Amino acid sequence: MSGTLVDENPTDEAPRPEGRVRTKRIVTEVPSAVDRRFNFITMAAGISVLVLLLLVGLFLLIQSSDALGETGIFTFLTRTEWRTDVQPARIGVLGLLTGTVLVALVAIVIAVPFSVFCALAITDYSTAKRRKWMVGVVDLLAAVPSLLFGLWGFLYLSDKIVPISLWLSQNFGFIPLFKTESDASLTGSIFIAGIVVALMVLPIITSVVREVFSQTPPGEKEAALALGGTRWGMIRTVVFPFGKGGIIGGSMLGLGRALGETIAVALLLPQVPQKIGESIHILQNGGATVSGFIANRAGADSFTTSGLLAAGLVLFIITLGTNMIASVVVSKSRSGAGVDI
Amino acid sequence: MTVTETPAAQAAATRTPPAQRRRAPRRPREFTTFDVWILLGSLVSAISLNWLVFYRFTVGASFFGFIVGSYLTFLVIFAAVTADRVGRLVATDRVMTVVVVSAAAIVFIPLVLLVGYILVQGLKALRPNFFFNDQAGITPVMPSTSGGGYHAIVGTIEQVGLALIESLPLALAAAVFLNESRSKWRRPVRIFVDAMSGLPSIVAGLFIFAVFILPFAKSGNPLFGYNGFMASLALAITMLPTITRTVEVVLRLVPDGLREASLALGSSRARTVWSVVFPTAKTGMTTAVVLGIARAVGETAPLLFTAFGYDLMNSNPFAGSQESLPLFVYRNIRKPDISAIERGFAGALVLLLIVLVLFAIARFFGRDRSKSKKRASRVSLSGLKSTFTPSRSTASPAKEASPS
Question: What is the predicted ipTM?
Fold first, then answer.
């Protein structure tokens, strides 16, 4: 479109005003030298982002080959313990992955309903002025660094949640997930970590869901109201079906963030490798996540570091996959076509 | 029964004498003083009932249980009363309104608690000397007000500044590529930028560690050891997608007419972007940069494997491990002694203030942009708006005046 536009079928060599044959003009772009450089530079920048992400995976793989080679990829993926104090070291990522997934699931289960209601409150239950405020507060929640959430959760919220954990374990202890051992400490549990991570993923899910809800065709909403529906009836029959893809995609995006959440979880969970296998008791002390475990072992010996890089590679692949599926789900759904996530 | 009044039903209702009418026709959204009393009454009765159950008849239930129990009881009572008054459908609508509004309100509570908690704890140890001293000669027995985080602040500024220098050109070029070019590579690049913004920040740190620090560990070259420069590279990776995506959104808002006018005048694509698109989107791009900085300032995880942390002043980012504000907080609150934890809170307060200020700046520029945008590009829309705004402002005094 820029540069010089060249008419490939020049017809104006000889002026022939009568019987001029109308040939289809084929317009092609012949960029000028400046534009060629410009196109090259922007293209290179775009491609380099792509390459950068591939390089991340590649270098993690190369540098973790020590640990992966010695342990074996399959063993590494399926072993739950992580012991470097024995010879040979027995390291595996499955125990860490279990903790990671449990924390993320707890976070998502808590965050998604709140996010959907919050998004509804912003799009359908508030005036324009209040909407601006609420969007600001949700954005602010997203701006608070993970470290501060972890700090607050570790030293303040944890004590407040322990009674809830106690109550859950006393009354719902028959559900295996909520069972605790008789004399177990209830601080530093996956449940508490999940609540704090829920607060961190909530703004991400809310913003996607809000964007999707706000694109509900006004005609359909008005039609529902004109047929005599209440506001909730309108939301149930128009907004929710329309925004279903956005809710699912936003939740998956939140799941991706929750899986990679590092510092808060590093502070909140004990990250003790010996306890990894028992992390299925979500209400009691114990559990480790991939990212938190890595963070707590910065500066370890070379074999452990190699193992950590392997764990990082696994985390990288899982979060990348989750995020990509999420963006595909959002962009493929009817509501999410023009939504940035 | 009276939930949705069809016109015919309304007409019938007005025709019948008021004495025979069981319920007055009403709109589902109408919220009268009586409804407020119902709301309050349900709330009071729910709290009383739960107080009776939780604190008189049973013991050992926590305050949280009491709150949750009261809330659920309140919903049930409110639903029952409303259903009896205006029917099931409107009652559902009312209850869901209460649920949605209260869920949104609950979300704000943690934010208030968090900011308040860090403010209270941080002020205990935050003294002016925090900004002028490092941790030289600090022992666990010394009070938390001694020493400071000067070295951490310097480290943060250097690392984030370097990260911005490294990531900004690439991010801008990538955003221009995504928005201004016609390349078929745009879609994969966009997907990868999206995926990159979800990249766990610790992986960015691990990547820099694996590429630069680990292979050169034995060479002893300080440039490829733990230092601020490596930290800035890791931070640049975390900033890159944030800036790229925000800038791309801003560039998309630039009206195509401006681009076409520039191209029609014979300027090149590069000149169009440089002289037309960028100046138009300037404030939005500032917001993007500020958001990128705000994201990078609070990142701790990528620094663990790159800057590593250091208790003393190290103003050279290219050699030797360096402290930064998040690392200072993280390292201090993990120490066993109380004075260190309090010092960590002082650092956390400074960090929170920096983030809040950056957030306010971003909001300020963001708002400025949206206003000027509407005025510049959407003439008809801005005209509409200007007709709306005064009419609303004149309507309200008229409304107030009419009863009197």
Answer: 0.86
